[in-house]
Design a protein that fits this description.
By secondary structure, the protein is an alpha/beta fold. Helix content is 38%, strand content 17%. The protein contains four helices and five strands; from the N terminus they run βαβαβαβαβ. A five-stranded parallel beta sheet has the order 2-1-3-4-5.
Length: 144
Amino acid sequence: MASPIPVILCGRTQHIAKGVIAALRPEFETIHLILSPATGKTQIPALLRGEVPPSDDTDNIGTRNYSKPPAAVILGAGYEDSHVVEMRELCKSDSKIPWLKPDLSKPAPSVGPDYGKAMVQRVKARLTELKDGGQMNGDGVYLF
């Protein structure tokens, strides 16, 4: 089996993130969890530059396996378009990976365990599509 693809996950709660992280495996490894746009603005640019974030970040329940750079940033529905624009602007010279965000026009379960499972199915499908299409090495925002 191929080694998992490293990703950064941006969510709002550890509770939902735990389920998403588990469901992304084994194809994808969540190396870092971001729980707020403010944290994303500082930590995502550093991660994309290959810097290792401080180890005292107790909110980060990712694997912290920074041996390979992140291949994608996955954003939850709690991140507004303005947050995405601000975070991407701070990463513009370093981002050469896809950023995935939910397509809010698609139906989704209410927030809870089923929500995370539904989002993971859509994320996996979109990332597989990007990988198969050779688009994992290019910057862009893609809906899932």
